[in-house]
Amino acid sequence: MLEHIELFFRSIFIDNMVFAVFLGMCSYLAVSKKVATAVGLGAAVIFVLAVTVPLNWLLDQYLLRDGALVWLGPEYADYNLSFLSFILFIATIATMVQLVEIVVEKFSPSLYNQLGIFLPLIAVNCAILGGSLFMQSRDIQTLGLAFNYGISSGIGWFLAILAIAAIREKIRYSNVPAPLRGLGITFIITGLMGIGFQSFGGMLTGGDEAPAEEETTTVQKIEKEEGEINKEIDENEVSYNDILNK
């Protein structure tokens, strides 16, 4: 349970797709002018990540990685289809995005028109593919953790675009210097938000003291080194006194 909680908060705040690795920036900047539009796209990203990351985990575990085909028989144990990862991951993502596009067009035509080309472009959104690739590279062990990672990564991206959309709606009525209006001030705000999100790293790091045995070993090493140094100093003093006496 603790592993799920740690992965959830780490994926939202510390390893945020936008602020930590700057993935999905094109949609993040283009569709963040209005909060309503940002909410719609953010919800679509959460759904696509929540579905595609577990599906791609299953593909990776039982089809793609080295030895994954052993369930078909011992003669398939040496097969490695990892070179097909990008093709199959993108195929899964494109299928889910097409489903989302159909649903949004059916039930919310106004949101579909507002999102425009950026809704089908979720299929090539690097944040979506990045979720599956990070899942693969971090060697997530279970399907439950993969589902957790997909949802939490989507929530992190959703919070990022929602926050910047709310700020951009407010600064529209602010006295921003002319050279910084538009994307200039947006990039500055994004950088500051990234610094803020990275500060959450203190929640999951630090606070553990070194074991007593390690501390004792370190103290003993220091004392031993000091003893050797003092011994060398004493020997040098004796040699110097012998020379003076002669």
Please describe what this structure looks like:
The protein is mostly helical. The chain folds into two domains: 2-203, no CATH class; 211-246. The chain contains nine helices and no strands. The protein has helices spanning 2-14, 25-30, 35-64, 85-107, 109-115, 126-137, 143-171, 183-198, 212-245.
Shape: flat
Low-confidence stretches: 207-213
Proportion of residues in extended strands: under 5%
N/C terminus separation: 78 Å
Instruction: Estimate the mean pLDDT confidence.
Output: 83
Share of helix among residues?
55-70%
The biggest beta sheet reads:
none
Helix and strand pattern = HHHHHHHHH
Number of domains: 2
Using the CA coordinates, give the radius of gyration: 28 Å
DSSP summary, beta strand count: 0
Q: So how many helices? A: 9
Structural class: mainly alpha
List strands and helices in order, with pairings.
Layout: H1 2-14, H2 25-30, H3 35-64, H4 85-107, H5 109-115, H6 126-137, H7 143-171, H8 183-198, H9 212-245
Notable features of this structure?
mainly alpha; 2 domains; 9 helices; 69% helix; flat; 246 residues
Describe the structure concisely for a colleague.
The chain has helices at about 1-15, 25-30, 35-65, 85-105, 110-115, 125-135, 145-170, 185-200, 210-245. Mean pLDDT is about 85; it is low at about 205-215.
